[in-house]
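Subject: Zn2+/Cd2+-exporting ATPase structure
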Amino acid sequence: GERFGKYYTPAMSLLGVGVAIIPPLFFGGEWTAWFYRALVVFVVSCSCGLALSVPVAVVAAIGNAARNGVVFKGGAYLEVAEKLRAIAFDKTGTLTIGRPTVTDILPLNNLDTQKLLALASAVEFRSEHPLAEAIVRRANEASALIVIVNGLRLLK
């Protein structure tokens, strides 16, 4: 492979340059047309064209999937998707509804679940982050929201 490439690559480079320059200089060809023909020679003769086409196809596929509501973490995950036999979805609603929800509260140090939820919602109350909104929503549902009015903490 390397011995072949040692001669093939310079030969194809010379051919491409020749296609771009010789017809316009000696035969009155149009520069633009022959420049594009030289580019075709480079793309067809060079395996780089094949190597470049893969990332472009992956980016196009990820973009198309995103427009249709499917998110891939990267090209590697897209490429192994054909081997999937089963898919497990989380039950938080992040994937199915697009809105995360709190499913379980596991307090440490014997802290009361309602009090923990109230404290967490107080911390997250003004945040617009989707996980913060899920905590506040759960606290509202459980009537455990701490509301601060004029510096007074009121347990809703």
